[in-house]
Write a structure and sequence with these properties.
three-stranded antiparallel beta sheet, alpha/beta, single chain, Enolase-like, domain 1, TIM Barrel
Length: 363
């Protein structure tokens, strides 16, 4: 799509940080109480720096991810800032290692996002405009972890106070009765105009997923997310066929080939793309084209700053997940205004590190 606009990679700097979360996210598959982030600065000979960050989920994965990105950096220094060429070269290095699922794919996506940021800055354009769209407000939903019924009022108040018209909670409690109780409590606490999404975080087998999801069909749920293992496309398709509520998957699709397989299996009614899993900007745009052809609405998973640009350029744009894990180390976090988030209108993705905060949280 681009030849690099004359930019050449001079250096790649990585900075691992562990950022505290304002609110821990408890899920049926594990608890996330901090944000282990790898900050990437792709420096060019022309004086332009492209930035991106990766989310390692757990601290134990942060150092291996950092080491991998630094090793790959040695392969791209001296190359033109050409995302397609960089991606092709790096992916080829992993062929004999079984491909790029896992940390390898995240690392490559980090280079892709930083490269696109540099190109957009060099062009003097926000990334959304570089992709043929424009920054615009995208409706956002609030993202909570597992809560008990007595936490419903707080979750609803937090959502409504920010003007958001969607709230997602995690479920997958030990019993179906507990899941239904919390869903009913949150649904009662929310205005009728506010959508309620639920996320099982891959915690169920197919039989249990069908049983529990059918029990939610009459509870006013907007979507049921990841009821079964993320790579069980046949199982997810079986749930989608058996349940009236739309099934949402996609945040763990590792690249557009997995997305294609998921679509071919009719594994879900809705799609959720994650910038670092799908392959950065390049992977997202390929995925958005597939989703458009299949008629699937696309929502984002995390990565508020770059997702707001990417959703603006997505034909079937649906919801932006508001999970502000990087806010503490950014100079200008993206705000929620009247329930929506708009991408930065400055050149690039708008990422700029607050270096005092970075030093505070660096490991």
């Amino acid at each position: 799509m681009t030849t690099g606009l004359g930019l050449t990679i001079q250096a790649v700097r990585t900075t691992p940080v562990i950022v505290p979360l304002a609110r821990a996210i408890a899920t049926a598959s594990g608890k996330v109480d901090c944000a282990p982030l790898l900050l990437i600065d792709l420096e060019t000979r022309e004086g332009i720096t492209g930035r991106a960050y990766l989310f390692a989920y757990f601290p134990f994965a942060l150092k291996p991810l950092d080491a991998l990105v630094r090793e790959l950096a040695a392969m791209v220094i001296g190359s033109a800032v050409n995302p397609q060429a960089i991606e092709s070269m790096l992916r080829a290095r992993f062929t004999l290692l079984g491909g790029t699922r896992g940390l390898a794919g995240l690392a490559i996506a980090g280079f892709d996002m930083a490269a696109w940021d540099a190109l957009a800055i060099a062009s003097g354009l926000p990334l959304a405009r570089m992709l043929g769209a424009a920054p615009r407000p995208i409706r956002a939903y609030n993202s909570f972890g597992m809560i008990r019924p007595d936490g419903a009022a707080e979750a609803a108040e937090d959502t409504v106070s920010q003007g958001m018209t969607g709230l997602k909670i995690k479920i997958g409690w030990p019993t179906l009765a507990e899941d239904v109780a919390v869903v009913r409590a949150v649904r009662r606490a929310l205005p009728d105009t506010c959508a309620l999404m639920v996320d099982f975080n891959q915690s169920l087998d197919v039989t249990s997923a069908i049983t529990r999801s059918r029990a939610l069909d009459q509870e006013g749920v907007h979507w049921i997310e990841e009821p079964v293992r993320c790579d069980d496309f046949a199982g997810s398709a079986a749930v989608a066929r058996a349940v009236e509520t739309p099934i949402q998957i996609g945040e763990n699709l590792a690249g557009t080939f997995e997305l294609h397989t998921s679509l071919a299996a009719s594994a879900s009614d809705l799609l959720m793309l994650d910038a670092q899993q799908i392959g950065g900007v390049s992977g997202w745009m390929r995925g958005a084209a597939l989703a458009h052809a299949a008629g699937r609405p696309v929502s984002s998973h995390a990565f508020v700053e770059i997702s707001s640009h990417l959703l603006a350029a997505t034909p079937t744009c649906d919801w932006l997940e508001y999970f502000d894990k990087a806010n503490a180390i950014l100079i200008e976090p993206r705000p929620v205004r009247q329930g929506s988030v708009a991408a930065s209108d400055t050149p690039g993705t708008g990422l700029a590190w607050d270096m005092d905060a970075v030093r505070r949280y660096q490991i």
